[in-house]
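Usage

Read records sequentially. Each one opens with the input sequence:
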Amino acid sequence: MGFRCTFLTAIVAVGSLLGVDSAAAQGTLGGLLSQNSPETSASGNAPTAPGEPYFDLDHFRPEAHSTGDDWSYQSLPNGLVYRSYLANPKDSRLSTQFIHPRDNWLWDATVGGRFGVLRYGTRDAVRPEGFQWDVEGSGQVRLDLENNVDVQSVDFRGGTALTYGVGRHGFKFGYYHLSSHLGDEFLLKNPGFPRLNYARDVLVVGYSIFATPDLRFFAEGGWAFYTSVSKPWEFQFGTEWVPSYPTGPRGAPFVAVHGQLREELDFGGTLTAQAGWAWRGDDSSNLLRAGFHYQNGGSSQLSFYRDFEQQVGFGLWFDR
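and closes with the structure output:
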């Protein structure tokens, strides 16, 4: 009652400043209070039973509701506010793929991941809201399965990002370094192959939106302030349909599509599609996927970035 009286008194004061008849306003507001109050009868002499419910402003005070999703500071939080792009072959994660891009089988493996360091937001592991600082790092190696499992090349990636998510929307600003290196065995067997010092330091801005809890669309642009062999601009976009909440042991289907355009390929690039079965953890955001992999375009190993590859294969991918 006290909060309503204070609020209505403030309305009268504002009305007076605007030239409204204060006596009339007080009479009207007083009638509202007396009409809806359970403590005053129609005659004004004795209390009566409550009538129709009144519009209770106290109901909208923050302490009136507690959902368990209050924002707080969390160190090493569970989950990501802005998720990695599932079909991006250059994102940091733990994965293994067996592919057949040319005339032999290759093994592409990524060892690494992306982790939250600090969050100010909710504690939901799967769809948290708030601000979060992430770090990432990975080694992405290609092995030649039909030639003594030789190391053909390794790409190294490390970076950091500030992300923000609210409702269906996610935003990302980050930096990453990426460099590519040919394997010793490959150079010994191919002494005339040009050794490229492919490297880039990139600032990125990304946006994503959930059309449904399981369906996300995203787009990202990146500009490299340092390049070697590569050129500054890159763009990526795509969509993902993947279970958002715990699946149990039965799992659920997933589909992920990712496109990337790179300036050093005259804004051509790669198209990657993955589909199969996915399992989401019960008490965490951990996501395990198994399925088919297809990629068409420039090589995902950047020492061979000018080589066209049509990859067909299968793999396992683990994300947070």
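Summary fields computed downstream for this record:
- Residues 2-17 form the longest helix (16 residues).
- The longest strand covers residues 150-166.
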